[in-house]
Write a structure and sequence with these properties.
- The complex is a heterodimer of chains A (297) and B (286).
- Chain A has 297 residues and is an all-alpha fold.
- Chain A has helices at 9-35, 42-45, 56-63, 65-98, 101-116, 119-129, 136-143, 158-185, 190-198, 203-231, 235-242, 253-263, 267-296, and strands at residues 38-39, 51-52.
- Chain A has a single domain, classed as MetI-like (MetI-like fold, Orthogonal Bundle).
- Chain A contains 13 helices and two strands; from the N terminus they run αβαβααααααααααα.
- Chain A is globular and about 75 Å long.
- By secondary structure, chain B is an all-alpha fold.
- Chain B has two domains: 4-60, no CATH class; 70-281, MetI-like fold (Orthogonal Bundle), CATH 1.10.3720.10.
- Chain B contains 13 helices and no strands.
- The longest helix of chain B has 34 residues, at 71-104.
- The radius of gyration of chain B is 24 Å and the shape is globular.
- The two termini of chain B are 36 Å apart.
- Classes of the chains: A mainly alpha (297), B mainly alpha (286).
- Chains A and B meet through helix 1, helix 4, helix 5, helix 6 and helix 8 of A and helix 2, helix 5, helix 6, helix 7 and helix 8 of B.
Chain lengths: 297, 286
């Protein structure tokens, strides 16, 4: 059954997937590529045919300092969050391996709770926590002696806005990393560790020379996924902006595209930025997809 | 990396300290969830006082009751339920056929199909939503449950095919063939033998799709522009926007979040084990 060649049946079976993917994703990608070569502004919204402008949108983007600020900011935010997430998640995984069953299960349940929270629900809680009037963060800071925190609005300045956003993104992403790395750690054979201990390796040396090489593949995949996901971070930034953050100084790629397209109606430029983002993601994903395909064949 | 056996050999104060650290980290990660539940039961007067209240003693169900009886909540709930259920049905049906093709047949284009699925799965919605918005407005499907369902289905189909593929491959073809030797037709053999064995895989995939569609924010924000066609996440966003300009009744906001989050958390915790074993099952080569 599995080796019949030339049959039409498998093609019929994948037809619905192909149709829905082409309709909902393929067509938009094609539209986006085309529009990125056109001037598509408010006039076109009212039915004027778009003008072909060749590479003008891309050329304008390359010269646009605002875009470069957004790109650099997005990459910096993504790198900081991804590395912090993997470092903290990895450390928590090692900790779970070392502690007794009771604290381990408590920690696992806490991580699962945070992981299961719907993003928007989590965001409302975080906005309430950092609220400048009655938020518990400012109360706590005043309690530990930082009087300047009273009534401080964390979302009003870009630096503290991104600090809050990074804490939230890391809080949301650590559970996946910690539990994946922990699953990887439980695969490390106990005998190898005991042999290393008998040979006089200290705890840190065992971690560095025995455990790390064995879980390196898990760590690198998790880091890669985290970089891809953090590059496209949108919901957290959008909702913090909604909660009173300054918009122009806090845009990352996703919110910038949103603002260009739905806010200013400049679909040509928005498409060019979107294409840039898609290409960046595909390049980054390639290594991950290739490793999955290797398992496949 | 010493296991429990080593600890028994020589009790160390270090492991007590590490245990304490684990508990502290657990508190940090669980705090927002606890804070949401706590605030959901407290009246606004208590939440507006200068020092926080850490336990909901003297609290009530008033906030929750207020939210449940809100018309906007009911309409958002209905839209979310409709989109989510339609997406689950459509995505499972489409992905199941695709998974059958990929795991039971060798055909030309199979490898490119799988490669395309994996790559598409990584595409960010943020890189596509402007075009999806234009497309939906051209065909008059902005604010349409069906339109949103189509976009959601396309978004989840790649991973769902990938997940189901492992489950389908896990059911030996021999079983089906034995049933056919015993006189069942191919369709009967499939329906009576293979399909029941696939039930856990279908359940796990359904839960995955459910969680994705129920929690989705970005595409809904772009497509569902009318206030009347808000999904639950968009309705929650309304509270966040309102908090920027005026004093907010945080008790009610947290009650609203609780209503959206608790079913998801319970669902997630119940199926988490089954889902991860499903994902491990999905790692079996197809």
């Amino acid at each position: 059954m599995s080796t019949r060649r030339g049959s039409r049946l498998p093609l019929l079976l994948i037809a619905p997937s192909v149709v829905v993917l082409v309709a909902a994703l393929g067509y938009p990608v094609a539209w986006q590529v085309r529009t990125s070569f056109q001037h598509f502004g408010l006039r076109q919204q009212f039915g004027q045919p778009p003008d072909w402008v060749g590479l003008d949108n891309y050329r304008a983007l390359l010269r646009d300092p605002q875009l470069w600020t957004v790109v650099v900011r997005s990459i910096a935010f993504c790198i900081v969050c991804a590395f912090a997430t993997v470092a903290i998640g990895g450390a928590i995984a090692v900790l779970m391996k070392r502690v007794a069953a009771v604290p381990r299960v408590i920690l696992q349940v806490a991580l699962l709770l945070a992981w299961a929270m719907p993003v928007v629900a989590a965001m409302t809680v975080w906005v309430w926590i950092v609220d400048w009037r009655r938020g518990i963060l400012n109360w706590l800071l005043v309690k530990v002696g930082i009087d300047g925190a009273a009534g401080h609005n964390w979302l009003a300045e870009p630096a503290s806005f991104f600090a809050v956003a990074a804490v939230i993104v890391v809080w949301m992403s650590v559970p996946f990393v910690a539990l994946s790395v922990y699953a990887g750690l439980t695969q490390v054979p106990q005998e190898v560790l005991e042999a290393a201990e008998l040979d006089g390796a200290s705890g840190l040396q065992r971690l560095r020379f025995v455990v790390m090489p064995l879980i390196a593949p898990v760590l690198s995949i998790v880091l890669l996924l985290q970089i891809i996901w953090d590059l496209r971070v949108f919901t957290q930034i959008k909702l913090l902006q909604d909660a009173g953050g300054v918009v122009n100084e806090t845009n990352l790629l996703g919110t910038y595209i949103y603002q260009l397209g739905t806010g200013r109606g400049d679909f040509g430029t928005a498409s060019a930025v979107s294409i840039f983002m898609l290409v960046l993601t595909v390049v980054l994903s390639w290594y991950y997809v290739r490793s999955l395909m290797k398992e496949e064949s | 990396m010493t296991g429990p056996s080593a600890t028994r050999r020589r009790p160390r104060p270090a492991s007590v300290a590490l245990g304490a650290l684990a508990i502290v980290l657990a508190l940090v990660w669980a705090f927002p969830v606890y804070w949401m539940l706590n605030s959901a039961f407290l009246p606004n007067v208590v939440l507006q006082s200068t020092s926080p209240t850490f336990l909901p003693f003297g609290g009530s169900l008033d906030n929750l009751r207020h939210v449940v009886t809100d018309d906007h909540f009911t309409s958002a709930l209905l839209i979310s339920l409709a989109v989510t259920l339609l997406t689950v049905v459509a995505a499972l049906f489409i992905a199941f056929l695709g998974a059958l093709a990929v795991s039971r047949f060798r055909f030309r284009g199979r490898k490119s199909f799988v490669l395309a699925l994996l790559l598409i799965q990584m595409l960010p919605a943020e890189g596509l939503f402007i075009a999806q918005y234009k497309m939906m407005s051209t065909v008059g499907m902005l604010n349409s449950v069906v339109g949103l369902t189509v976009l959601y289905t396309a978004a989840v189909v790649p991973f769902t095919v990938w997940m189901l593929r492992g489950f389908v491959a896990g059911v030996p073809v021999d079983l089906e063939e034995a049933a056919m030797v015993d006189g069942l037709s191919r369709t009967q053999a499939f329906l009576r033998i293979t399909f029941p064995l696939l039930a856990p895989g279908l359940v796990a995939s359904a839960v995955y799709v459910f969680l994705q569609a129920w929690n989705e924010f970005t595409i809904a924000l772009v497509i569902m522009t009318d206030e009347q066609s808000r999904t639950l996440p968009l309705w929650l966003r309304g509270f966040i926007q309102a908090s920027a300009s005026r004093e907010t009744d945080w008790g009610q906001v947290m009650a609203a979040s609780t209503l959206v989050a608790v079913p998801v958390i319970v669902f997630f915790l119940i199926v988490q084990g089954r889902m991860s074993s499903g994902l491990v099952g999905g790692a079996v080569k197809g």
